Amino acid sequence: MKLHPILAALRKHKAGTVLISLQIALTLAIVCNAIFIIGQRIERVNRPTGLNESNLLLVTQQWVGAPNADTADGVEKLDAMQREDLAALRNLPGVVSVTPTNSLPLLNSSWTGSVSHKPGAQLGGKDNTRTAYYFIGDQAMDTFGLKLVAGRAFTAGDVQHQGFRDQPPRPIAIITKALAQKLFPDGSAVGKVMYSDGSNAPTTIIGVVERMQTPATGSWGNDFAWYSTLIPTRLDANFARYAVRTRPGQLDSVMRAVTPLLYKVNPLRVLDDDSVKSFGEIRAKAYRADVGMAILMGVICLVLIAVTAAGIVGLTSFWVGQRHRQIGVRRALGARKIDILHYFQVENLLIAGIGVLLGIALAIGLNLWLMTRYEMTRLPVLYVLVGVLAMLVIGQAAVFVPARRASNVPPVSATRAA
Amino acid sequence: MFAYYLELALRSLKRNRALTALMVLAIALGIGASMTTLTVLHVLSGDPLPGSSGTLYYPQIDPRDNSGQLPGAEPPEQVTLIDGLNLLHAGRADRQALMTGGSVPIQPDSVVVDPFYVESRYTTADFFPMFGTRFSYGRGWNAADDEAKAREVVINGELNQRLFGGADSVGRNLRIADASFRIVGVLDDWAPNPHFYDLNTGSYGRAEQVFVPLQTALDLKMEHNGSNDCWGRGAGGVGRIYPSESCVWLQFWAQLDSPAKAADYKQFLVHYSQEQKALGRFAKAPNVRLRNMMQWLAHERVVPDDVRLQTGLAFGFLLVCLVNTVGLMLAKFMRRAGDLGVRRALGASKRALFGQLLIESGVVGVVGGAGGLLLAGLGLWVVRQRPSSYAALAHLDATMLLTTFVLALGSTLLAGMLPAWRACQVPPALQLKSN
């Protein structure tokens, strides 16, 4: 097939050709970037927290008229109340283990600080590594389902308690593998000493866990998303959080039993609808904006592609109608049906080709612009290539129906007025 | 003439029903998506206190030491308690208020109602007149009550409804965090969006139910919520209910009625910083900012990036839909070159033809715009069903309604312009000949 007649015909439809190419280019640019954003969101949502997330629930509750956590006496009373709750929860049928904790991954309620090789380092100094603390009990490893890769887990004897705002020394800690590698790149963190929050008292690392995400899902927490530090301490305040692991299949029954049980232990407290949450709910809430954004972008991309495809169908149909007589002449002069079909297909390929070339430039330009304004990384070439291929295929699919109609124009129409 | 052209347009549109439907649908989808996202953006970036936001300022000073901080960096986003009280007592602004947030247990006298926690704001007296809060009953407290650590409280309409069934509860007593308070005022549904005066406790859809004098709250050690930023050894201290002296955790707002006063106030902040440095409290050279409310909201990037991205995406979509419409309309008009040639030959001017074709594209625009409005209504309904904090705010207002129509009509007329112009360039004689 010779391109010459196609080019000559397109030159007669300059405006139409330019417009459809432009539409393809814009569609390619927008869809490439949108799919890239969707991909990033999906990757973010799917990253594992390091916990065994099934059969895990979190209880958040507040006492009313609780003892003052600023006095030694008050702290002891609060701790007794907390131990009473823990014992009651552990006795609940279907419960495997329970730990007090200040937060959980994805909960967006974090206690962050920094750890350093040196004592007395000032906050915000260079040697400091940001970390998020989990203050937990001895059953935490089992309750969370963490995988210990070095050292040992906490024992009941390791666990201390403190008032929420007190700052006692932290003699031992378990840290994540990511934090261990940052602090001790030679891979021997167990038994080493670090200093937390500018303290002069050393903290000995007794164990390393494979992975545990910090509670923050916002962009401010991205830099230290895997730098968690576990401290064996019950925090005593007028509120407490308990993480509960249940036997498989008993999550729902335990969730229903928790609130009445805790009210029975001590009625002077507040538990509302939000107080007992499964980890699944915590995960869904943490990422709902990302999921919503991904769905919205996906829908807009689909509609965008549909509009562009419909535009190609519409415009080609017009051209077929307009050239009805010429097609008849070509057929009468000996062109086969397949030649007519190919003519429109090649014509579309040419138009779409111009469109995608322009589209590649637009896609990269749009990505660069987005990078200056939002948190965005460089668009991988693969996305653009797949996008280009997809646009060409969509173009061919869209042109097929009108092109076949064109190929069915009978040669006799050459003799009739258009 | 207009009626005749309109009839012609309708006839022409009827001739290619599928194509007309495609053009209308594309415009409607584009307008619907753009208006939905634009409305959300408009609501989120709106002025929470129209009329007075220009005179409200958020002073920032820098009391930090030099550890690990870059020179020229932004000062902290809040103030320490000492600096807050100093600025408050200096009284250099027309009005000023120092505040922070928390949550408190409400302990109703009735035994049938269990105690419950509500969000609270601890603030000094000017909060109410400065932010123009609207009262259903009573009023706020005054500066003397602040200093006297008065047990007075302002509650909002929601809490008043819950506790007192909406009746005038001024003068009644309310037990909060184990202390007895006298209700002095009941707000109506006042809840500015964004929650500009303290963005740390959520930007949208937040409203405190209880307002307590700051000094009273500190005296009773009421629980504090929000952001604490500390430096140096600031995190230290044992048994401290509130953050230490080297932590910022309160917000300070000032009302300055004229730009000259604002300039003076900025000078005052510099002098204050110098004075504190001389006293040894501050370590840095004066590092102050004085942004008004809207500048502060822009600086804090209070509108979520996702919302901006969505709006950008929707307008990109609209652009593609318009290009699509231009292409289709062009093809359509060019196909009618024969008819147009006959009309030209019969004496119709280019302008008349142009007008006729524009009316045709205008009809597509109006119908598409109406469809877009319906889709925007649907889109906003979907947004309201979503669990985001700003969901309930997503409503079309008169401005956005008008914008939708202008956008729909304007964009399709613009889109019809090029095809109409191209079609009018057809020389009449040539068209007559070719058939």
Give the structural class of chain A.
Answer: alpha+beta
Helicity level of chain A, as a percent range? 40-55%
Q: Overall mean pLDDT score of chain A?
A: 89
Q: Helix count of chain B?
A: 14
- Name the beta content range of chain B: 5-15%
Number of DSSP helical runs of chain A: 10
Net shape of chain A: elongated
Cα shape of chain B? elongated
Number of domain units of chain A:
2
The assigned structural class of chain B equals: alpha+beta
Helicity level of chain B:
40-55%
- Rg of chain B, alpha carbons: 31 Å
- Please report the total strand number of chain A as a whole number: 14
> What profile does the largest beta sheet of chain B have?
11 strands, mixed
GO molecular function (chain A): transmembrane transporter activity
InterPro entries (chain A): ABC3_permease_C (IPR003838), MacB_PCD (IPR025857), Macrolide_Exporter_MacB (IPR050250)
Family (chain A): Belongs to the ABC-4 integral membrane protein family.
Domain ABC3 transporter permease C-terminal (chain A): 299-411
